[in-house]
Specification:
single chain; mainly alpha; globular
């Protein structure tokens, strides 16, 4: 119900402005902190206006990092995070699409049994199976590698379940029409199901990319070589430097750079992301 009353509009906009301010203020403080020199925050003050050292701080983090805290250059860590996030995202989408296609459109023994086995894994987070997974990755000699970073995380029961539910809503007449036209299973999947699923794929792409980008525990366990550190690992190492106070101006510069790729992905795919979460018509 929408009420066209001036006081109601004023109240609603006031609440919205307060909510936006509460969300944006920490981000603004992080950006401001990344533009000041090394001594500003150690004096116990919190500047509210940008400082003059933005270029120096971002250049230092991008090119040299904070080696004293065990953090390589941010450019390298961002690249590692990007490769890991993209491998996890593409792997999850590919496996989930094919497994959902098989469950919905093929009739084989124990089909529903396998589906429920996949569904039950929703209740097993990575932390529960992390020790046996680490043992398998170590036995396969995949420690300190992009394969070790991404392959154990590319199966997704959530995406499989969502694609299965979507495929079940596709009209049966489309399958019959494809059969009449002589289309095989792969052609039906490629030419009909994939175009219909594009908004769902886009929505899950955004969710899976952010999931892969924000991974912390798994990269921390299997990487000891700084060449494979991700940006989240690097930030954690910079905040826990044992031989001195954290360099907060450089940490905040790394935080701002780490936040940019997920924000850009959401901005560029905003329309498809919202459409994929809300659209029900085929």
């Amino acid at each position: 119900m929408v009420e066209n009353r001036p006081w109601a509009n004023l109240f609603a906009h006031t609440i919205l402005i307060i909510g936006v301010a509460l969300v944006v203020f920490p981000v603004y403080i992080a950006i401001v902190a990344s533009t000041h020199g090394p001594g500003e925050f150690l004096r116990g003050t919190l500047p509210l206006l940008p400082g003059p050292h933005a270029i120096d701080n971002y250049t230092a983090m991008w090119s040299t990092g904070l080696s004293r805290a065990g953090a390589p250059p941010a450019g390298q860590m961002l690249w590692n995070s990007f490769v890991m996030a993209m491998a996890i995202t593409i792997g999850k989408l590919s496996i989930s699409l094919l497994s959902a296609f098989a469950i919905v459109y093929f009739r084989f023994r124990f089909r529903m049994f396998f589906f429920w086995i996949i569904f039950i894994t929703l209740m097993l987070p990575v932390e529960v199976r992390i020790i046996p997974t680490f043992q398998v990755v170590a036995d396969l000699k995949m420690l300190n590698s992009f394969a070790g970073l991404s392959i154990p995380l590319i199966a997704s029961a959530t995406a499989t379940f969502l694609f299965r539910q979507f495929f079940m809503t596709v009209p049966e007449e489309m399958l019959e029409a494809a059969r009449v036209d002589g289309a095989g299973p792969l052609k039906f999947f490629k030419d009909i199901l994939m175009p219909l699923s594009i908004t769902n794929i886009a929505a899950l792409f955004v969710i899976m990319f952010i999931y892969g980008w924000n991974q912390y525990l798994w990269p921390l366990l299997i990487t000891t070589d700084p060449d494979y550190y991700t940006i989240v690992m690097g930030i954690q190492r910079m905040t826990t430097a044992a031989d001195g106070d954290p360099q907060w101006h450089l940490v905040m510069a790394a935080v701002v750079m780490a936040a940019l790729p997920p924000v850009l992905v959401v901005l560029f795919m905003q329309r498809l992301f919202v459409k994929g979460l809300t659209e029900t018509e085929k």
